[in-house]
């Protein structure tokens, strides 16, 4: 931002920040929000918008901190509560979210987006009506637990939250944290489908759960009270291409539908609520992944790099990337934060892809057996797009052991085959 920033009013800064925010210029939007907060640290709208921005970047705890300031400053805005509940759900704090949903409804602070949150909680077989706590959302009991004992009970307003200047222009500009529009291809009954993990490995099935990161993490989620119905299909001692393995799983699912999760065997899942995040993501996209790009350049060699020069020499470029993945072998390995999640993508990394099998069967989308490993995911994404299906990233924590290898002859050969097929 340049020096003209100092000449703008707080209302103008908020309006500009919101415009930049919605355009995807997060750095500039954050600069505007922070400028407001330097002058007014408790500014509710700036804290709210900054919270949304942080959540898109994967910083959910940071988002929650700003929402607490926002609600402490103005607890009578239903949109603020809706955003707070949304973040609680993304953090896996389902019990807190349920309590506040009930409180919002009881206290006249219901927002239209809360309907989706309530339906999601019902899908977990934990109905809000089963919660015994019915404390009003802005009562001292709830608010003191959120903000500390300094909270004082506010006066609740029953009217809609709109503030306008004398000439009718909006005086306060909010970024609406609405969920992506549900895909027309989504399955209405997919909540009943099992999640079926499909994984190819060079190890024997008997060693999969002890010798691979994916097997070890899946084993950790298998207990007497699983949070979801998980099935596991292992192509063990595998020498086939991934496309062949995955297509076999798709064909098997034509008579036994499931949410298929195609995953590499070197992925450590560190998210306790990963199945919930997959199901939630598939309410908005036909195919979900963990990392990708929102745009696509001519002759682009993969989702992260924009240009191919020679084997092992790729240009990063200015792609609009999405998602986050840690790399290493330990739970707290360094995180690569590529960009905001829950956005539609053109290309996605094949380390983790999830889709309702019925969607692929109905759209006649398969993996191309000509791509054994390299570019199988790029080609699949192109086929998904060609079928007018939607792809997007979800916030789901994993650690990937491999960082990729782009300098081999097999990779270069697959790249040429991919370019010849799609002619760009």
Kindly summarize this structure in a few lines:
It is built from 15 helices and 14 strands. It is an alpha/beta fold and 424 residues long.
Morphology: globular
**What is the helix content?**
25-40%
Structural class: alpha/beta
| C-alpha end-to-end distance | 37 Å
Q: How many individual β-strands?
A: 14
Physical arrangement of strands within the biggest beta sheet: 2-1-3-12-5-13
Mean pLDDT: 79
Report the order of strands and helices: HHHHHHHHEHHEHEEHEEEEEEEEHHEEH
Beta fraction of the residues?
A: 5-15%
Biggest sheet descriptor: 6 strands, mixed
Q: How many alpha or pi helices?
A: 15
The value of Rg in angstroms is 23 Å
**Low-confidence parts lasting 5 or more residues at pLDDT below 50?**
1-5, 126-188
Describe this structure in words.
Strands 2-1-3-12-5-13 form a 6-stranded mixed beta sheet, with helices on both faces. By secondary structure, it is an alpha/beta fold. Strand 9 (321-327) and strand 10 (335-339) form a beta hairpin. The longest helix has 14 residues, at 26-39. The model is unreliable at 1-5 and 126-188 (pLDDT under 50). It has 15 helices and 14 strands.
List the helices and strands and how they pair.
Elements: H1 10-22, H2 26-39, H3 44-56, H4 60-73, H5 78-90, H6 94-106, H7 114-123, H8 140-147, E1 195-200, H9 205-211, H10 213-220, E2 230-235, H11 242-252, E3 259-263, E4 267-269, H12 274-281, E5 287-289, E6 291-293, E7 307-310, E8 313-315, E9 321-327, E10 335-339, E11 347-348, E12 352-356, H13 357-363, H14 376-386, E13 391-393, E14 398-400, H15 409-422
Parallel strand pairs: 1-2, 1-3, 5-13, 9-14
Antiparallel strand pairs: 3-12, 4-14, 5-12, 6-9, 6-11, 7-8, 9-10
Helix pairs in contact: 1-2, 2-3, 3-4, 4-5, 5-6, 9-10
């Amino acid at each position: 931002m340049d020096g003209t920033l100092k000449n703008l009013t707080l209302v103008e800064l908020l309006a500009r920040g919101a415009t930049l925010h919605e355009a995807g210029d997060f750095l500039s939007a954050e600069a505007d929000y922070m400028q407001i907060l330097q002058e007014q640290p408790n500014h509710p709208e700036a804290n709210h918008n900054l919270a949304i921005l942080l959540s898109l970047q994967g910083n959910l705890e940071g988002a929650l901190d700003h929402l607490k300031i926002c609600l402490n400053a103005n607890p009578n805005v239903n949109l603020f509560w809706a955003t707070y509940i949304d973040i609680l759900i993304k953090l896996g704090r389902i019990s807190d979210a349920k309590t506040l949903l009930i409180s919002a409804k009881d206290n006249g602070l219901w927002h239209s987006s809360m309907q989706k949150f309530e339906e999601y909680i019902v899908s977990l077989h934990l109905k809000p009506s089963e919660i015994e706590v019915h404390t009003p959302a802005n009562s001292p009991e709830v608010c003191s637990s959120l903000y500390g004992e300094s909270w004082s009970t506010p006066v609740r307003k029953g009217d809609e939250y709109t503030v306008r200047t004398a000439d009718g222009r909006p005086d306060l500009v909010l970024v609406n944290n609405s969920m992506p529009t549900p895909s027309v291809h989504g399955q209405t009954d997919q909540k009943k489908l099992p999640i079926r993990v499909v994984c190819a490995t060079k190890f024997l099935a008997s060693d999969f759960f002890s010798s691979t990161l994916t097997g070890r993490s899946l084993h950790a989620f298998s207990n007497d009270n699983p949070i979801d119905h998980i099935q596991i299909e292992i192509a063990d001692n595998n020498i086939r291409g991934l496309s062949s393995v995955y297509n076999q799983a798709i064909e098997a699912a034509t008579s036994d539908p499931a949410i298929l999760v195609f995953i590499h065997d070197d992925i450590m899942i560190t998210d306790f609520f990963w199945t919930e995040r997959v199901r939630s993501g598939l309410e908005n996209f036909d195919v979900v992944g963990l990392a990708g790009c929102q745009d696509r350049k001519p002759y682009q060699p993969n989702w992260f790099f924009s240009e191919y020069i020679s084997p092992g020499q790729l240009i990063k470029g200015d792609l609009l990337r999405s998602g986050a993945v840690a790399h290493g072998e330990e739970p707290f390995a360094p995180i690569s934060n590529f960009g905001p999640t829950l956005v539609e993508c053109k290309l996605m990394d094949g380390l983790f892809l999830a889709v309702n099998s019925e969607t692929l069967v109905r759209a006649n989308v398969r993996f191309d057996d000509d791509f054994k490993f390299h570019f199988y995911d790029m080609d699949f994404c192109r086929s998904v797009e060609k079928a007018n299906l939607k792809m997007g990233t979800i916030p789901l924590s994993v650690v990937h052991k491999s960082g990729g290898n782009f300098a081999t002859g097999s990779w270069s050969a697959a790249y040429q085959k991919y370019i010849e097929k799609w002619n760009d």
